[in-house]
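SEVERITY: medium
COMPONENT: batch folding queue
REPORTER: lab tech (J.R.)

DESCRIPTION
The queue accepted two submissions in a row. Attaching both inputs and their returned structure tokens so the on-call engineer can compare them side by side.

ATTACHMENT 1
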Amino acid sequence: MAVLPIRITGDPVLHAPASPVESIDDEIRALVRDLFETMDAAPGVGLAAPQVGVPLRVFTYGWIDEDDREWRGVAINPELWISPLEPGMPDEDEESEGCLSFPGERFALRRAERAILRATDLEGEAYEISAEGWLARIFQHEYDHLDGVLYLDRLDDHDQRIVQKITRKRGWGRPGSSWMPGVDDLEA
């Protein structure tokens, strides 16, 4: 297992749709192990293959809910259905999220309250999870990565300007930009 460098906004792999996984083989199993290791080292609650430079429709997730239930798994070639968005502005305290591809920052973003994830696991078995709240948010965030969409792309104009300033200040926004979980200090 290995911790992989996480690509930062601006890298082309983050802004293009990922390709379906054709077969679950040793290469995919190794990728999933590395995704979990990298996600845990970051630390994060989800990580999509494009975030480590692999343009495949795979993401991992790991989160413990308020009832101490652990949600941990892999979604291969997922499909996602979401409930309609509630109108209004997002709540800064309840609806802020971050991204390992834009580390150290959080912005409020309205997401659907419910989602249904259908995917395949590492054994090739299909599964379905009906999620609410934070788990639904995780699924939406990671699924977006598979379509080449960062949560930053969904922010309002005001937050978009802040993102652009941060990107310039930190020298991000260019191909090949990445950081190494457990090694790089990104609090600059």
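ATTACHMENT 2
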Amino acid sequence: MSKLVLIRHGQSEWNLENKFTGWVDVNLSEQGVAEAKNAGRLIKAHGLKFDQAYTSVLTRAIKTLHYALAESDQLWVPETKSWRLNERHYGGLQGLNKQATADKYGDDQVHIWRRSYDVLPPKLEDDSEFSQVHDRRYADLDSNIIPRTENLKVCLERVMPFWEDHIAPDLLAGKNVIIAAHGNSLRALTKYIENISDEDIMDLEMKTGEPVVYTFDDKLKVVNKEKLDD
């Protein structure tokens, strides 16, 4: 039986400021650091041991992983970073205050942009200060691959090759895996793992800093799911 632990990064500075973040690289807030450390203490208390760690290339997820591993005395665990685990790209919404956006476009429209499975937000222009087309961490990617906007459907299509090439083989080999990533990249993985419908995925929430533990059989069927809390 292999185990997979998913952790949404702790509260970020833009979570605190109620801004759409997406691929913009922001840091953890003080509360976010505390949440990440607490996740590590919960992992240690439950005796979870990892063979492999994965995270995105965004600071808030990387730091969450490191705090959690450090608190559970597992900072040495091999770690791989991938842009495929990045948060969903929020397009032209990136950098905008969520309430101000709701005031402008209406609560219903913003809810659809945030939660619907296949509706795309407006595209982000390449000359925006919140664009990633000139970010050095994506220099090896074809510019056309770098998103200008994503919905959850596109995010899932982007995440799945990483699942198929890295995460699933690890689990099938009996390894225990931890992934520290983002609300929507983890919602995408959860949708796939649990076979959640396009409609029901709109209601799925991922709490910041809360470890979610899956136990799989040797065919990658979920035999148990547990959320760790105090």
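NOTES FROM REPORTER
The longest helix spans residues 152-172.
No errors were logged for either attachment.
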